[in-house]
Design brief:
alpha/beta; four-stranded antiparallel sheet; 10% strand; elongated; Bact_polysacc_biosynth/exp; coiled coil
Amino acid sequence: MDLLTIFQTLYKRRLLLIGIPLLAAIAAFFFTSGYKKTYKSTAQLATGFTISEEVKITDERFNLYEADVKFENLIETINSPRVLSLLSYRLLIHDLTSPNLAFRDIQEKVSESPELMAINRDSVRHLLTNRLDSMNILVSYVDKDREAINLLEAYEYDVESLKESVNVSRINRTDYVSVISYSEDPYLSSFMVNILCEEFLRYNSSINSSRSNEYVRVFSQLVAQKKKELDDKAEQLRLYKSSNSLLNFSAETESKISQITELELKREDERRNLRSITLNLTDINDKITKVQGAESSSVNTDIVELRKKISLLNQQYIAGGSNNSELANTIQEARTTLRNLMARANQTPSASEDLDYLLNKKNELEIEKKLSEQNLSAIENKLFQLNRNAGGYASQEAQISALERDLNLASEEYKNAQEKYNKSLDIALASGSSIRQILVGQPASDPEPSKRLIITGLSGVSSFLLCILIVILLEYVDVSIKSSSNFTSLIPIKLVGSLNHVNLKKSTVFNLFKIPREKLDSKSNLFRESLRKLRFELEKLDHQVYLITSTKQKEGKTTVLSALGMALSFSGSRILFIDMNFSNNSLTREFKASPSLEYLLTKKNVDINSSISKTEVPEIDIIGCQGGNYSPIEIFKPERLQCLINSLKERYDYIFLEGAALNFYSDSRELSQYVQGVITVFSANSTIKQTDKESIAFIKTLDCKNIGGVLNNVEVENMDT
């Protein structure tokens, strides 16, 4: 839908677009005439949410999102039933305490309600005072509270009524919250905003104090719990050390390691001493043997074997990385023995050596050997005991490490809890609310503008826009043909003429042509001129016989046929109508013709003149039909109809056959082969459906017989579109 079509549609509905908004404006003006005067009072609260005026407890930076959340919470708290209930208590207490200064009078309501009359107002006032002090709300299931609620509703001081009278909002991009009240009394409005701010500040202070005390209590319990856990861990570590005699675990561990090292050195010395004693004892035994005359093996042989042994030990010592201290000691002892053997080889045993001396020396060496072996055994036993204790220290060290780790963790948790507790104490000490009232509401001297003219104007404008929207929407969803331009886009056949809508209830088509032009209205004159254009289109064709049909019923075939015949008769032509619409013989009924067509075509030797009926127009005749549930070829032979038409062509200039609707009957399809041209009538109010498209497709197959379509019943405003 283009803009031109939209403007044309709106222009057609101009009376509707003017009338409805005008009525809406008048109705709005009338309904707003009873508005009461209202007085406005405004108070303001400074929140401190966007500025920093209080003592800083933490290093938190300003957060815009958090500030917005705080404002939303603040507004919701003020609008909450609990805070509004405090305001309602104060209002009712004021009116009950000072009846002469009461803001509202409910005597008329009391006189009409026995329930209100029975309420004890002193009892209600006492109840509300207690509720105000405790900041509790009334409950409807308690009888006394129910009486107070009924009285509040009678005064319109209940929470729901106050919500309609009070408006709380943030002043854009500022730190302030505006509290506005509207009422019929300027002093009531100012009282409401000031008391609401006062009660909110009292409630907020109570909540903050309670919340701070709760935080301190919670963190105090947390500190005590963490302190107990820390003490338990320390006691577990102490008991473990005490039970294992590990008062100083690190020092004792170092002492044990030092003892083991020292004993290992002593063991090596003792082993070396034992080997030396053993060698000396061997040497003494050898000497005793020689003194006693015993022969030993050659000293030289011993020297050679000992040198081989030393060489072999040196190779093993070097191959082992030269770090085997025991092997090194063995090599050293062998070398000492070698030197002794070589010295003996260079000396001859003295025969004068005393055998007793050697035996005494042997006894001394054997005693020293036993003492050395005992010392070595004692050292090794001590080392074994120390090494076993050192192995036990490893598991004890792991257990002590785990206990010390738990102790450190408990200590950290205790410190964190202590910090939170100290911070909560600081916040509690500096928890004075930053919210304060900076603007006190004052009674207004003048009432608020009634906005009656604004409401009236808005009603008119909104209804006007709504009407425009509805008109455009209806036009958009309307898929009827309506105009010749739509006909061209929707129907793929030629449009030979358009006929506008005329009221034929009070007059016939024939009368439209009899009445002088100047006595006809514009619609009738337009209809008559449109028929003349259609007559011109037919006169250009060299045809005599036409079929008037349509795709669906009640499209106006009879009206178009009658009007077209009347127009042609004014040009001096002789016209014959043949009603072959057997499903609906409206043409026969309209002209009150004799239903003789079936008799004429089925009987032989019938006089044609007797079958033709006259009309009120001398140039127009008609052959009517009886009608029934049959088609043309079912009641007569095709050649009879063709012969009838040929004989009538000699007497008439134009012959018009009316056929049944193409969508429902085959009559028009059967008759199309006996005529020279087919004219299809479409109503402007019709829509093109699938069955219509199928009928139109048949019409297109008629080729040269298809004269085109006539758009009937077009609204005058759509005739030129």
